[in-house]
Amino acid sequence: MDNKEYISEFEELLKIKDFHNNKKMKMAFDCTYEKIAKSIKEEYTQNISEKINRWVSVTHVQYFKDTKCIRYYFQAKMLYRDGFYEAAIILSRSISEMICYDLLSKTSHPFGDLDSLDIPMFRTFVDFLVIPKEIEKNDFDAQIIKKIDDLNIRNLLKSSYLLDKQNNKYYYKIENGKGKSNLKRIIEAINFVGFTKTDNFSIDTRQILHNLYDIGNLYVHSKKSKNTPQKDSYECLNMLAHILSDIYGLKSGITELTGKNIKSGYTDFPDICQGMNFAFEVAINPEDAYRIYCNIPNRIYFDKLFKSVGTWIGEWENERKEITKGILTFSLRTPEHLVANIKYERDKMEIIEELEIKLFDNYIHLIGFDEKDMKHRKGKHIYFELHFFKENLLLGENIEFSGKVIFERKS
Questions:
Q1: pTM of the model
Q2: What is the pLDDT of residues 265-304, one digit of tens each?
Q3: What is the pLDDT of residue 61?
Q4: How far are the Cα atoms of 95, 265, 348, 384 from residue 276, in angstroms, in the given order?
Q5: Which of 31, 200, 278, 306 lies 20 to 30 A from 264 at CA?
Q6: CA 121, 125, 131 angle in degrees (round to 5)?
């Protein structure tokens, strides 16, 4: 059967290759390159609030040990942040496998050369890793065997462990680790009696690993999920946060970092972000440290803002790319309370709009709102970003419609 629909690539990406190879098309190349660059910028800034919310919603743990699994986890979070839900799910599934290979490389196991395995053994790996490999004799007898009535399960446990009388410990027979069904029965028995001294991760984490893998398999094998990709990817990343925190997180609190090197997790992706936007800042005194922690602007920017009191004449591009002129007024309601409003004409009607002022480093946001319910509405209210370009000049953008804005102080 013929497809009724076809998918098209962004044509400019193909055109620019032709222009690049033809010296006579330099202007076409430059203009096309600029169009692509502008498209990327505008595309990414659209729905920026949703991107931030998604990023925040799957971020729960600040510190991890530096492993390949963690670096891939950061990538999966960025995929989810940017709306690539299916890719985030499939990468999350791969990370769960990477975790198993990483942990198996650090312990004795019966699986031979891990690099040459052709048969998927993820679930067996997970169950083998969580099985306690050594148990104190008193714990084994009193906390496990004594609490199990099923003779078959008791015999399975006894035959799976070897007692070292000298150390007074039971050791798991590593060669039994390939028995998938027996592994599961042992885990169920240990969980039933409430024994929590497992290896590598908790029983809860073991189940979460299986759950994550189940979701990943739906997408790898093109099966239908009962949920949307966005919901599934959200679930996968929150499960990963739990799993990775259990395995690679801090075990003894923040003191574990004493004497350790710490780097931003985003410096590993220089082709996507330079990492400096997510780097650590240093303060020279407690007051400055608190300001930095809260991301509050430096005092010099507060001074600049309060020096803006007065009237500013300006113009900007509206949603129709038309030039609108207006008067911006900053005034002091009290010595420490600055307010603003803007007067302009829309559809031949004069409008005076109260503005919320938000100060950041060397720039402000001016956000119009309805005084009845205090809500901002796109297309109805002003939303400017203005930079303190000069003492008497503010330059910026109409955030919601990508238009330019300029205001000059009235002399």
A1: 0.82
A2: 887 777 776 545 555 566 667 777 777 778 888 889 999 9
A3: 92
A4: 26, 11, 47, 26
A5: 200
A6: 150
Torsion sign over Cα 99, 100, 104, 107: positive
CA dihedral for 353, 358, 359, 363, sign (positive or negative):
negative
b/e per residue 382-393 (b: at least 16 CB within 10 A)? bbbbbbbeeeee
Identify whether the C-beta of residue 199 lies closer than 8 Å to the C-beta of residue 133: yes
pLDDT > 90? residue 380: no
Q: How would you class 93 by CB atoms within 10 Å of its CB: exposed for 0-12, middle for 13-18, buried for 19 or more?
A: buried
- Give SS3 for 290: helix
Tally the residues of the chain. 411
The strands making up 134-136's β-sheet, listed across from edge to edge, are: 134-136, 169-172, 161-164
Q: Rounded distance, CA 368 to CA 375, Å?
A: 8
Would you state the pLDDT for residue 274? 57
> Using N-to-C axis directions, what is the helix angle for 203-220 and 229-248, rounded to 10°?
140
332, amino acid identity: L
